Amino acid sequence: MKRVAQFGFLLFVLSVGAGLFAQTPYFHWYQLNEGTGAVIANTATQSGVGTIAAQGVFTDGTGVATPTWTSPGGLGNTGVDLSTPTAFLDSGLDPDLHLNTIDFTVEMLINTNGTAQTGNILFAVCDASTIEAALYVTGMGTSQLALAGTGGGFVDSGGPNLNDGNWHHVALVYDRSAQTATGYVDGTQAFQATSQSWTFSAGTKVVYFNGRTLSSFGRWSALADEIKLDNTARSPSAFVMPSPGGGGGDGGGDDESCSTAVGQSELWVFGVLFLLFVAVRTSRRREA
Hints:
By secondary structure, this protein is α+β, with helices and mostly antiparallel strands. The chain has helices spanning 2-20, 95-98, 254-258, 264-287; strands at residues 26-30, 39-41, 55-59, 68-70, 79-81, 88-93, 104-111, 120-126, 131-138, 144-148, 154-158, 168-175, 180-185, 188-193, 205-208, 223-230.
């Protein structure tokens, strides 16, 4: 009986360890490291978030459109230059099925490449004619990060001038319980919109760098790389802040450097071993 109890305790320790060090599931993780083509691999860890598209496709609103690839990217060897041809990324994700009851964070690397991007979209939830939410760059004052709400109306903006020719990490964090939508540039808060109770309609899609038509919304016409969408309201300390134009450092290329689970994938083993050690010590003391 004592052995059964010890075995059960070990299983409990393992389950706790697995929970503590589990990686956050992503809806999207487009690394944009293909270097060619219009079909983009979704390398997200999607466990627990439901069935979603296995890949993203660049389109011009009517058919497949191959973007211009550029090297280096914001992280790693390649990114995309969307100045020509007309191209934006359709993820195929239905937000009404996946985002209507949870927190979420979208983040990416962008570079205006010295070209003003007034009104141009980075992330949008929309149907073929209407925006329900969008992260974009506003021309109000300087080229700042901004948020649009239902119908594409301005909600809030702030942060530094993004039109400086450098790569920047931008993020939008939606906290459903707090009803806040917070924008960040390079880990620093740019704006925070309050009283944001978001419920997305059936038929809308999650797209990047435009809406779902050829020219209905402001199309991003500069550089972009590394797009992530996950089911948590992240804090700035969880953002990945790569050096502009740089790849991975020691122990990391595109995969490890951009993963918010960097270190977790290596540290969880040690954590579980430590818990096992505690469990064994405890059981030995009981036997004594």
